[in-house]
Write a structure and sequence with these properties.
Blueprint (H helix, E strand, L loop, with lengths): L1 E12 L2 E7 L5 E8 L5 H7 L1 H8 L5 H21 L1 H8 L3 E7 L29 E7 L13 E9 L9 H16 L4 E7 L5 H8 L7 E9 L2 E5 L5 E5 H8 L8 E7 L6 H7 L19 H5 L16 E2 L15
Parallel strand pairs: 1-4, 4-5, 6-7, 6-8, 8-11
Antiparallel strand pairs: 1-2, 2-3, 8-9, 9-10, 11-12
C-alpha cells in the first residue's frame, strides 16, 4: 500500500487517546480508542524498557528473561496500544507508517519514545515484517525539501573510535552498497560516499557542506541516550550530543530527504542474543563470550534500539522526521 499515516487524535494523557490510520488519499484503514492501565507492569516497561529489563531479569537467566519480557511487552502493545491498527499495518506491508504525534500538549511527545515497533502480529514484531514506523511530532509543516535530482546521493557514516568494540560495520557497509547497486540497476544513477575511519566532527562538517548536498544520510556506530560517538583526531571518543548532531545535519537540510541513525548503546550483547530477543533463529554454536565475566550487569543489559535488528537493519533503524524541529532531533535513544 506504500505510505500510511497513523495519527494521534483526542489525546487526553499517556493512557487515553485515539489512533486513526489512513491510506493514500486519506481513506480510513483502521482506528482504535486507546485505554491503558497505567498500573500494569507492561505499561511501566513500555515507559523505559531498558531500565525495566535492568531491574527485572535474573542475572543467571538474563537472555531468557529479556526475551520473554520483550515478547510479552510486544504482545501487549499490539493488543492494548494498537488494537486492530496493528493487524491493519501488517496487512499493508511492505509499508512506511508516518506516526503523527501532536506537538501540544508536550506530554504527547513521550509517545515518540515508546517501543511501538515491538508490537507483535502473528507472533512477530512489526519491525521484522517490512513495516517501518516514522515518528513525527507536530503537523506536516517544515522546510521544503528539494526533489531527488538526476543522481541519488547517499552518505554512509560508520564510526568506531579507537578502543571501541566492533559492530560488524564492514558487513553493514557492504549491505548498504549492495542495496544501492540494486537501485542503480533500475536505471537511477546513485552516488555513494562512505566514511568509516577517522570520522570526526570536522570531517563530517566538510562533507555535509558540499554544494551538491545529500539525499540520504545513514549513520551507524556506538552511542548512548542522547549521544553519538564520533572520533577525535587522535582516534579517541568524541561524545556528540543529539543537539550538536542535529546542528551538523542541518547543513544538509536543503536537499536531504531521509536520515537514519543506527546507534548501539553497548556491543556487549551479541548478535545471537539480539536475535533470541526477537524470536529469530540463531547460529548453531553459541558466540564467544570471552571476557564476559568482566562486564557489569548494566553493560550486559544495554543494547541497541530494538528495530536495529531487522533484516534490513540500516533501513529499519531509528527513523525520525526530518528536518528536526526546534533544533532538536526526537531520536534520543542512542
Amino acid at each position: 500500500m506504500g505510505e500510511l499515516r497513523l495519527e494521534v487524535r483526542e489525546f487526553q494523557d499517556l493512557t487515553r487517546w485515539r489512533w486513526v490510520l489512513t491510506g493514500p488519499g486519506g481513506t480510513l484503514v483502521a482506528d482504535h480508542e486507546v485505554r491503558l492501565d497505567g498500573e500494569s507492569w507492561q505499561y511501566e516497561a513500555s515507559e523505559d524498557l531498558l531500565g525495566y529489563l535492568r531491574w527485572h531479569v535474573a542475572p543467571d537467566r538474563r537472555t531468557e528473561d529479556e526475551a520473554r519480557i520483550v515478547a510479552e511487552v510486544g504482545t501487549w502493545i499490539a493488543a492494548e496500544v494498537f488494537g486492530p491498527v496493528a493487524a491493519a499495518m501488517a496487512r499493508a506491508r511492505p509499508a512506511t507508517v508516518r506516526v503523527m504525534v501532536p506537538a501540544e500538549p508536550p506530554e504527547a511527545r513521550m509517545l515518540l519514545f515508546r517501543p511501538l515497533e515491538l508490537a507483535r502480529v502473528g507472533d512477530k514484531p512489526l519491525s521484522l515484517q517490512d513495516v517501518t514506523l516514522v515518528m513525527q511530532a507536530g503537523g506536516d509543516g517544515g522546510a521544503e525539501v528539494a526533489p531527488v535530482r538526476e543522481r541519488l546521493r547517499v552518505l554512509g557514516l560508520f564510526s568506531l573510535p579507537e578502543g571501541g568494540q566492533p559492530l560488524n560495520l564492514r558487513r553493514e557497509r557492504y549491505a548498504l552498497v549492495r542495496l544501492l547497486e540494486g537501485i542503480a540497476a533500475e536505471s537511477r544513477a546513485v552516488d555513494v560516499r562512505v566514511l568509516q575511519y577517522g570520522v570526526t566532527r570536522e570531517q563530517l562538517r566538510e562533507v555535509l557542506e558540499e554544494d551538491e548536498g545529500w539525499d540520504v544520510i545513514h549513520i551507524s556506530g556506538h552511542g548512548a541516550p542522547g549521544v553519538l560517538l564520533l572520533e577525535r583526531q587522535d582516534g579517541s571518543e568524541d561524545l556528540v550530543p543529539a543537539a550538536d548532531l542535529a546542528g551538523l545535519l542541518d547543513l544538509a537540510r536543503e536537499r536531504v530527504r531521509l536520515v537514519t541513525v543506527s546507534a548501539c548503546w553497548s556491543a556487549a550483547l551479541t548478535a545471537d542474543e539480539q536475535r533470541r530477543l526477537l524470536g529469530l533463529p540463531t547460529a548453531a554454536s553459541p558466540p564467544d563470550r570471552a571476557g564476559g565475566a568482566d562486564r557489569s550487569p548494566d553493560e550486559e543489559a544495554d543494547f541497541a534500539r530494538w528495530s536495529m535488528t531487522s533484516r534490513s537493519g540500516w533501513r529499519k533503524s531509528c527513523t525520525t522526521c526530518w528536518p528536526p524541529r526546534a533544533g532538536r532531533c526526537p531520536a534520543r535513544w542512542g
